[in-house]
Specification:
The complex is a heterodimer. Chain A is built from 10 helices and no strands. Chain A is mostly helical. In chain A, helix 3 packs across helix 4 and helix 8 packs across helix 10. The N and C termini of chain A lie far apart (about 45 Å). By secondary structure, chain B is mainly α. Chain B is built from 5 helices and no strands. Chain B is elongated, with a radius of gyration of 23 Å. Classes of the chains: A mainly alpha, B mainly alpha. Chains A and B meet through helix 2, helix 3, helix 7, helix 8 and helix 10 of A and helix 1, helix 2, helix 4 and helix 5 of B.
Chain lengths: ~200, ~80
Amino acid sequence: MQADDAAVVDRLRAGDQVAFATVVRQWSPAMLRVARAYVRTHASAEEVVQEAWLGVVRGLDGFEGRAELRTWVFRILVNCARRRGRTDSRMNAELGGPTVDPDRFRHDDDPYPGHWRSDAAPVDWGPEPVVLAAEFRAVLERALAELPERQRAVVELRDVHGFDREEVCDLLELTLANQRVLLHRGRAKLRSVLEGVLA
Amino acid sequence: MTPRDIACIELVEMLTDYLEGALPPDEVAAVEAHLDTCPPCRTYLAQLRATIRATGSVPVETLPDEAYDTLLAAFRDRSR
């Protein structure tokens, strides 16, 4: 446990409401994504996150600080989410198929099969600040919301919240290989959505 | 040894493994050899990286305000 982590735990135990509100605001978005990968509806995911925080409140005095606070909180979350049961059937649909339309590549009768067709190759988007403009953030926000739940969970945990791959595998019960596939499919989809509005 | 030839259609599906450092060295060499000679795939990779960076600044969904109120109330009760 890091020094600032210990300080936060002390403040929480002392009943510091600002400290509690801060961690709840900071971690709930990522917790919601993790929960949503386990349960069927958004409403259930919100309930799971609330239930987890109530578990944190109850367990604070017993928290021994062997793990980081965040790791402990997310472990409680995963236990709550797992109790609600999960649906594994969706997993396969999230793993298969190409991420770029095969028609954008030359066919087998071409001298260069599998290479970009000149009329369908990616076109430069221009300077990066363009992609970061507010209107494209809104596009990405909608595109994220439309990803299958586990792709969305992996992409948001990795690329928005900065979790490392081992943590993501642990929280979502994925192998490293499947984590990469979900990340790949999610990122590729977001790229193609941006391409649709930029190119 | 010359790296094996990769077609673009295959390369685009290898890029996350490449960025994650999950490819064996000979495959890394094959990816990089392809990128060296293929401007459209370089563009594709640049777009993937730009997408990842842009995703980092997207506002994300969180709990509804009522949920925060409930949790804060529970926290206050604990402290009493």
